Amino acid sequence: MSKIDVQRNVGTEPPSPRPGMAHFLWQQLPYVVALVLAIAGVAYTNVSHQPLVGYWEFLALAICVVCVVTKWPETQGKEAQLRLIWTQALHWIAVLITMNIILISGVQQLLPTPATGLVLLTLLALGTFLAGVSLLSLQISFLGLAMGVAVPAISWLKQSVFFFLLGAVLLIGLGITFWLRQDSRPRIAPSDTNSQVEA
Description:
By secondary structure, this protein is an all-alpha fold. Helices cover 83% and strands 0% of the residues. The chain crosses the membrane at residues 29-47, 53-72, 84-103, 115-133, 140-157, 163-180.
């Protein structure tokens, strides 16, 4: 085989996919899904004005499972694996009990319904962050921090939703004005340009 054939074969090989990036995104998927579900729960509570009791409990249990599953491959020995399971179980049982204390009807009367969703998200964020610290997991700690940051962000968005609506109306108005102005410009037909060139 000549050098030219080798160069042709090298040039025609398709670029190899980046398995490292796809694997990294696949590993981060459970954390992103948990964050999206938490924010969706608060948004639904704010819109429907009804606390989602079972939803928050399910989300806490799901994050508990994520904590155990992500640390399981790094845990060596049956004793260490059992310790991982029962410490995470106790941790998340404490979080669930605290959430249910907030949802007791006597406490519920003191909080407006939208605030209940934010309080539950705050408890979930604290539980997630502390689980990440105890497991020495940067991803789980970051998930807890992201949930915690989402609490003031959601309350700020709720307060400033009127300004966002005004901004959206302004942008739509400017877009329509620009579009109408483009349509109202006189257009020169191709036959008119040919007759002007001939003259």
